[in-house]
Design brief:
two-stranded antiparallel ribbon, 5 strands, 90 residues, Ferredoxin, ET_Ferredoxin, mainly beta, single chain
Length: 90
């Protein structure tokens, strides 16, 4: 598992859970940016944000929410979903 700085007590009060449905992905690349990349021609969560090495799920800090929202809106098939997770993860 890749270590991240997301779960340091007192630093972040909420994180964003992101998920890519690779079955819906057309490979258009519109989601690429700070959070998502293309892997084997399909959208995936960037390595530094992945959960347990899964390429379709991850968590990012609140500061990346605009990037996540932009990618979700850009996806023509609605294959990117996200939700805010609140609380102290420390």
């Amino acid at each position: 598992m890749v270590e991240t700085k997301l779960f340091i007590p007192g630093v972040y009060t909420s994180v964003i859970y992101v998920k890519v449905d690779r079955w819906l992905c057309t490979g258009c690349g519109l989601c690429q940016g700070a959070v998502f990349e293309m892997v084997e021609g399909l959208s995936a969560v960037r390595r530094e944000y992945r959960l347990d090495g899964r390429i379709d799920e991850g968590v990012v800090g609140e500061e990346l929410l605009p990037n996540v929202m932009r990618a979700a809106r850009a996806c023509p098939n609605g294959g990117i979903t996200w939700r805010r997770l609140g609380g102290d993860f420390g």
